[in-house]
Every structure is written in structure tokens, then in C-alpha cells.
Amino acid sequence: MQGSPFLSALRDAMITERYALRTIKTYCYWIKLYIFFHGKRHPKELNDQHVTAFLTHLSVERRCSVSTQKTALNALVYLYNRHLKQPLDDKLQFNRSSVPRKIPIVLTPKEIQNLLSVIPPPYQLPAQLLYGSGLRLMECLRLRVQDVDFHYCSLRIWNGKGGKHRQVTLARELFEPLRMQINLCKTRYEVDKKVPNFSGVYLPDALCKKYPEAPFEFGWQYLFGSSHLSTDPLRDAFRRHHIHATALQKSIRKATKICGFNKPVSCHTLRHSFATHLLESGADIRTVQEQLGHEDVKTTQIYTHVLQQGANGVVSPFSRLET
Fold it and tell me: Which of 2, 129, 231, 250 has the most CB atoms at less than 10 Å from its CB?
């Protein structure tokens, strides 16, 4: 399927419809997998039963999580409903994933301190915000200069998971590093403005139409901008994008090896640790829910496991044995 005309046309269609690059890559991945699953047959030759078989395969054979299966379904809904104009049945009967939610890995405060101390610039400050403000990876990387509010010790998060906005806490200890980062952004911004074909920072189409000058304003520039300008593949424009997600992920994995931790650590581990440590310090679970941007408090309650002694607060009878 390398260089497939069909997938190329699909990608071009999503670009024209202004889908995000990450969404385009994700949808193309699942649609390609779907085509391979059915022996490389053209999707036009397939129907609801083939979609059902593929989604059931993801659940039963591959043991995909609920969210992964939903993403695959969304990709196929786009393929049939929007691209091929062959709408799927609204009530597809497939085996739905029910893989249990994993208990999150959490670092101790000392482990967090050790980890953050060995992460080098330019990734140390983003990692500190992942833990200090409980941010998701892309929420952190998509921060704009104007999203930092020193007066109210907060960060404004726009279009987080589910398209929701929220305001989160900002540690005062990070004020100075953030001011230095903003100064770096200002220096780069002044240089970028002198580049003849500079198109300003990326903004969603709706914002660009409403505020046509916004891409060239300093406040809209990414807080964690890349070290170089690049071409926006979706708009054919010359911009300074934010640092790449994989670069921060690799930096944290490398720091984990340096620290010698015997448990898996990722960017999301810092968010897990933020939530658990807040609850451990006595924060109300509703407050933590708002900070994390969880729609349902049940999602937040998983972090209470660290606060319990053993399972559900049960003390093992082994602890009462005389030695």
C-alpha cells in the first residue's frame, strides 16, 4: 500500500477539509489496517459486515482498549460516511472492547525530583509543567505565550481532550524559567518576522478568519517553539511549529534510564503523579477532577489507589504475626 493512490486521495481530502495532521495520520493508519485485514480489497467493495468483523477483531484478537477501538471506528465512519458517501449503519453490532483500565504508574516526589533534574533543556521546562500542572503531552506543547498567567498563577488550556477549555494551577517556582522561555520566544519571533516568506504561527481556520493578523502577533506564538522554521504540510506555509512530541518523549525515556527506575515512565506518568500527589496532600477529588479536565469524577477516582494501605485499606494478617 506504499504510495497507494487511494490513501493519497484520502489524505488530500482530509487536508482540504482542514483536519489536524495528527488526525489525518491516525485515520490513514486505521483505514490502511482495515484494507489489509480484508486482503487489500477496495473499501467500496466492503460493507457493514466487513467493518463489524474488523472492529470485533480489534476487540477479541488484538485486545485493543475501548478508546483505541473507538478511534478505529471514527476513522471508518469518516471513510464511508464522508469520503465514499456510503454511510454505515448507525447500529453496527460488533464486539466492543472491555479491556480493564490499567492502574496508573506513579512516581514518588523524590523520584520526580530526580527525573526532572536530569532532563536537559529544551525539554526540562515542558516536563516540569507536565508534572507541576498535570498537563497532557499535547496540551503542554500547544501552549501559546499568552496562555501563561503569572498574576493568577495559572495556565489556560484551550481545546483539551473533548474540545474543552480549562484553567490549571502554575507553580510559582516555574515563574522565572517561564519568563526566560518567553524571552527566548521573543528573540526568535523578532528574527522570524524578518524572514520574507514567514507565514506566522499556525492557528485553526476559524481563528484565522476571525483574527487574520493573529498568526503574526507575539502572544499567539508557541511557548515551546521548535529551534527552526519548517513548512506546514497542511497549509504549504513557512512557520515555527512547537517542538515535536516524540522529542520530549525520548528525553523522558532517556532520563528514566539514567535514574535507573525499575518501572515504565512516560510523559503521562508525570500527569498521573500530579493527580496522586495532590490527593495525597489533602486536595478535594472534585478539585483534582477540574485540574485534570476529567468529565467524570470516576476517572479521577483511580488515583485514590495510592492513598490506600494495601487493597481497599485492608491490613494484611501477615503484618500482625509475631516475629
Answer: 129
